[in-house]
């Protein structure tokens, strides 16, 4: 048994399919089937129950999967630390990015960093702030962007962006002609919000409660452009960060919200008490320095 046996086993368990796991690993199905059979023979247990359309972990398989993931992670960390020790300026960086933000400046920063470190590759994972924090703690992401405040006992962070939210309405809405809208004036409206993986969902709900009402949520989504299209179809209203609302078409009205105004702060976070790779360290330093120069 070697590390590949465990890695192949992890993939089959993830996809619940030898075929899909083989496709993901770019190997043949007979090869992966043989590797899993060899692993079962070495361990003396059956790892999967073979069914017609999928494979399911046995009790022994579930037990071994937990340990296999631990061993695989340790092997990955060993490889990364050896690269760091040898001074090889390469690596792979996994970044959690909320789809709710305007990522243009962020992408420019990635591009300029890549010119300096062409052997570092990136994986951008779009998700809500709650999910991003969870994935960092589970070591599925290296760094991410979240909404402040964050758990300072678990994360280091530096400030990225601060902006207010705007009300987004259909142009024919009775309030569409106003220059400002008090939050309490929206108590009878139907809200289209980001789903509960997004801290912004909590921020809006809490602000509405402070204004004396619970928002009537008729739909939730993880995509800001889809929310904009729903508003444009007169399905309801939404509250979006100003930089995002300005990306929407002219088929909607964007208006400042007051009493209370709702703001959000974004920050880049990375875990405390966990190993940080060379790629992550260099990218964090580069990005923080770039942000400092932009503020000067």
Descriptive report:
This protein has ten helices and twelve strands. With 296 residues, the protein is an alpha/beta fold. The chain folds into three domains: 3-85, Orthogonal Bundle (Arc Repressor Mutant, subunit A); 91-160 and 265-295, D-Maltodextrin-Binding Protein, domain 2 (3-Layer(aba) Sandwich), CATH 3.40.190.10; 162-264, D-Maltodextrin-Binding Protein, domain 2 (3-Layer(aba) Sandwich), CATH 3.40.190.290. The strands form three sheets. Strands 3, 4, 5, 6, 7, 10, 11 and 12 form an eight-stranded mixed sheet that branches. The N and C termini lie far apart (56 Å).
Strand content: 15-25%
User: What would you say the CATH architecture of the largest domain is?
Assistant: 3-Layer(aba) Sandwich
Query: What is the terminal separation in angstroms?
Result: 56 Å
Mean pLDDT: 87
Number of beta-strand segments: 12
Largest sheet: 8 strands, mixed
Low-confidence stretches: none
Structural class: alpha/beta
In total, how many domains does the architecture comprise? 3
DSSP helical segment count: 10
Shape: globular
**SSE pattern:** HHHEEHEHEHEEEEHEHEHEEH
CATH-assigned fold name of the largest domain: D-Maltodextrin-Binding Protein, domain 2
- The proportion of residues forming helix, as a percent range, comes to 40-55%
Radius of gyration (CA) equals 24 Å
Look at the structure and give the CATH class of the largest domain: Alpha Beta
Domain HTH lysR-type: 1-58
InterPro entries: HTH-type_LysR_regulators, LysR_HTH_N, LysR_subst-bd, WH-like_DNA-bd_sf, WH_DNA-bd_sf
Protein name: LysR family transcriptional regulator
Family: Belongs to the LysR transcriptional regulatory family.
């Amino acid at each position: 048994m070697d590390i590949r046996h465990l890695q192949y086993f992890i993939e089959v368990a993830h996809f619940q399919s030898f075929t899909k796991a083989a496709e993901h690993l770019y190997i043949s199905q007979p090869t992966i089937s043989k590797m899993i059979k060899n692993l079962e023979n070495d361990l003396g247990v059956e790892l999967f129950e073979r069914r017609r359309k999928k494979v399911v972990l046995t009790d022994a398989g579930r037990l071994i999967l937990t340990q296999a993931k631990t061993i695989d992670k340790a092997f990955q960390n060993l490889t990364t630390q050896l690269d760091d020790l040898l001074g090889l300026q390469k690596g792979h960086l996994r970044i959690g990015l909320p789809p709710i933000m305007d990522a243009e400046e962020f992408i420019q920063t990635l591009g300029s960093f890549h010119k300096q470190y062409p052997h570092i590759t990136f994986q951008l994972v779009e998700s809500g702030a709650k999910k991003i924090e969870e994935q960092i703690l589970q070591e599925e992401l290296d760094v991410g962007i979240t909404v402040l405040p964050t758990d300072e006992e678990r994360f280091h962070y530096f400030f990225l962006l601060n902006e207010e939210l705007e009300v987004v309405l259909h142009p024919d809405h009775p309030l569409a002609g106003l220059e400002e809208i008090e939050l309490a004036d929206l108590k009878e409206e139907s809200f289209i919000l980001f789903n509960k993986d997004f801290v912004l969902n909590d921020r809006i709900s809490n602000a509405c409660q402070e204004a004396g009402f619970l928002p009537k949520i008729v739909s939730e989504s993880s995509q800001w452009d889809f929310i904009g299209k729903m508003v444009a179809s007169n399905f309801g209203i939404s509250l979006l960060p100003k930089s995002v609302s300005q990306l929407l078409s002219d088929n909607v009205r964007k208006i400042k919200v007051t009493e209370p105004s709702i703001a959000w702060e974004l920050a880049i976070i990375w875990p405390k008490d966990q190993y940080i790779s060379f790629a992550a360290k260099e990218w964090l330093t580069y990005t923080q320095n770039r942000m400092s120069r932009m503020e000067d």
